[in-house]
């Protein structure tokens, strides 16, 4: 977790991702062109960053308004159900439906709060997208990029995992210098659950979110 906080803006930029639409088709579609995943990552990233530039003074005065911008521009492109399931690991299978829904809601709020705050620190870092690897059509794709740090230093590598959901790409993990967001949270959550159970973990997330006012 600390690794992500240290990376600050860099991780926030990594979360400026992808893909349009939220419809779910009951029929498995043909594999999507992988180039469309990178294109949508770039387009959505640019939209978010341009909005931050345009509203910089407004956000300095009213930082809480970043939440609505993130919800509008970024959230439709993430599969929080899948992220939450992966983050809970085997505990997801053991949870009942109520626990799953509560966990997804609180985890979603935690991610929005954490990375919205990080986005406020954006200072015109440049994103370089790397060539795609693998087939031209696929059901899963890794979009790779490097972030040039505004204050110098080596670029930070990032990878965004997307999968085909219906006729769209959805984000389900982000890696910074090879460190997975999902794996990080899974490790922390597993420790919390061993100590106090899933309900206690959910209650902690609720209190943390309430305290932050997100």
From TrEMBL:
Gene3D superfamilies: Tgt2/MlaC (3.10.450.710). The keyword Signal applies. Keywords: Signal. Residues 1-29 form the signal peptide. It comes from the Bacteria. PANTHER family: INTERMEMBRANE PHOSPHOLIPID TRANSPORT SYSTEM BINDING PROTEIN MLAC. This is ABC transporter substrate-binding protein. It comes from Nitrosococcus wardiae.
């Amino acid at each position: 977790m600390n690794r992500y906080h240290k990376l600050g803006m860099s991780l926030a930029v990594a979360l400026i991702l992808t893909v349009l639409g939220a419809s779910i088709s009951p029929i498995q579609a043909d594999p999507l062109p992988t180039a469309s995943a990178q294109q949508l990552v770039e387009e959505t990233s640019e939209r978010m960053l341009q909005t931050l530039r345009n509203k910089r003074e407004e956000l300095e005065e009213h930082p809480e308004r970043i939440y609505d911008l993130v919800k509008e521009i970024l959230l439709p492109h993430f599969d929080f159900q899948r992220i939450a399931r992966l983050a809970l690991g085997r505990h997801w299978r053991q949870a009942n439906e109520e626990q799953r829904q509560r966990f997804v809601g609180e985890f979603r709020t935690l991610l929005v709060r954490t990375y919205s705050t990080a986005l406020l620190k954006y200072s015109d870092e440049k994103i370089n997208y790397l060539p795609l690897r693998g087939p031209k059509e696929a059901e899963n794709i890794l979009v790779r990029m490097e972030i040039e740090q505004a204050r110098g230093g080596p670029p930070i590598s990032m990878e965004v995992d997307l999968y085909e959901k219906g006729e769209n790409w959805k984000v389900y993990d982000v890696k910074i210098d090879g460190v997975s967001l999902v794996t990080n949270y899974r490790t922390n959550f597993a420790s919390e659950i061993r100590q106090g159970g899933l309900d206690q973990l959910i209650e902690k997330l609720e209190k943390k979110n309430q305290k932050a006012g997100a």
